[in-house]
Amino acid sequence: MTGAVAIAEEQHRGLLDGIGAARVGTDRLFDILRQEALYDRPIAERHRIVFYIGHLEAFDRNLLAPGLGLEPFHPEFDRLFAFGIDPVGGGLPSDQPSDWPSVEEVRRYVRTVRDRLDERLARQASPDQMLHVALEHRLMHAETLAYMFHQLPLDRKRVPAQAPQPQTQPVTPRMIDIPAGIATLGLPHSKASQGSREAFGWDNEFEAQQVRVPAFAIDAYNVTNGQFLEFMRAGGYGERSLWSEAGWNWIQSEQVRHPRFWISSSNNGGDAGLYRTMFDERPLPLDWPVYVSHAEASAYARWVGKALPTEAQFHRAAYGTSNGERDYPWDAETPEARHGNFDFHRWDPVPVGSYPSGRSAFGVEDLVGNGWEWTSSVFGPLPGFEAFTFYPGYSANFFDGQHYVMKGGSSRTAAPLLRRSFRNWFQPHYPFVYAAFRCVEN
Q: Which of the listed residues 62, 197, 396, 405 has the most CB atoms within 10 Å of its CB?
């Protein structure tokens, strides 16, 4: 066996092991829910939770089975659990719990899909690209499910063991000057064709392009709950000039008066008494990053006379150096717990500036972990974009001018998704995501 073949086989086994570990992770996530919550719909735009129990396996079966020659054993469930709902979609779903099969039926389907896929994968290779897609799809849903479950009443969840909050010192908001330089967005097709695990990317991550970024200044830390509270107390939600037309219409129609994760202590939204974590309610943590929609982040940036960074500016601040670029803000080391709040170590944010080992070459903090970061860049294809032939709508369906790029990662973002080229995206009026932000001056 040649060295190249041995490496390829090791990578293939690693992917299969990764899928197994990710299954354990999502199973444990469902286990935090009480039985009576499994037919709840914690976010109106999304499916009921029971759908997602079946969806993860239906996705894997529909993706991998054709190449493995597996015949369908439950075509109805293969279709029923095939597709999720985009929060921009055409109206809210109106199905009832009685419209769904029993949890026992769904879990029996899940076990059978896993058994049949695993039996075939043990003796027949599936392309690594397909296995990467299956793995990362599941890891992304592990985060999506977390922010869905976050919206459930506390008595619908069981509290697992949790990591203690780190001991940190208070920080002072400041801006850091970033010199002009090159930012590389995306991955080159040539690297991906080499087949290394590190070179996998979704279709929207190709083709690589270099962008010349003029000098700018950026917040050293994410905007905190305390800073956003000042915006709220100053009447930011009532000042029309701070909002786009669509943003203003949204906050008026939905009566948005504070971030979704806050619980207001007054009728007029002039203050916030409590913060909703995954498993409790506590006094508003002023030094945590504020989680808000893109519309709210943009309004705050206008209020302070600044702007949200572009995707290229984020890259320059996060990965740039005085003479090149890094794989991660801290350099080339594999992401570890000391670098940031990510990879499922915690359920909630921590104070900004808690991970000095993760700061960028220019001294910017928390660029990976503790909250995705909104940019001002509309989600669209990079030059040379080619849709996956086996999943053509994954990205292209969202090149509609109505979604914005997010970078970085949250406490519930898996380590493989922390790569420099990864691009997340959401529409601007969706307030449930673990999304923070920081501002720039150009």
A: 405
How confident is the model at residue 10, as a pLDDT? 85
How big is the chain, counted in residues?
442
Spans in the chain with pLDDT lower than 70: 1-7, 86-90, 191-198, 265-272
CA 19 to chain centre: 19
Q: How open is the CA angle 35-38-44, to the nearest 5 degrees?
A: 145
Backbone torsions φ then ψ of 320, nearest 5 degrees? -75, 155
**Which residues 6+ apart lie within 8 Å of 63 measured at CB?**
130, 133, 134, 390, 391
Give Cα 326 to chain centroid, integer Å. Answer: 21
Q: Are strands 216-219 and 175-178 parallel, antiparallel or unpaired?
A: antiparallel
pLDDT of residue 430: 95
H-run or E-run covering 255: none
- DSSP-based three-state secondary structure for 135: helix
Instruction: Identify whether the C-beta of residue 17 lies closer than 8 Å to the C-beta of residue 54.
Output: no
Q: Which domains does the chain have, with CATH numbers?
A: 3-156 (1.20.120.450), 175-223+299-441 (3.90.1580.10), 225-287 (no CATH)
Residue 379, classed as helix, strand or coil, is: coil
Q: pTM (2 decimals)?
A: 0.94
Q: Is 114 in contact with 57 (CB distance < 8 Å)?
A: yes
pLDDT in tens, 243-295: 999 999 999 999 999 999 999 755 444 566 899 999 999 999 999 999 999 99
Predicted confidence at residue 4, as pLDDT, reads 57
Q: What is the pLDDT of residue 367?
A: 98
**Longest distance between any two alpha carbons in the chain, whole Å:** 71
Please tell me the predicted confidence (pLDDT) of residue 176: 98
| CA separation for the pair 281, 21 (Å, rounded) | 31
In the chain, the amino acid numbered 130 is M
CA dihedral 353, 356, 362, 366 (to 10 degrees): -40
Euclidean distance between CA atoms 282 and 179, whole angstroms: 40
- The C-alpha atoms of residue 111 and residue 87 are separated, in whole angstroms, by 29
Residue 53 identity (one-letter amino acid): I
The pLDDT score that the predictor gives to residue 167 is: 78
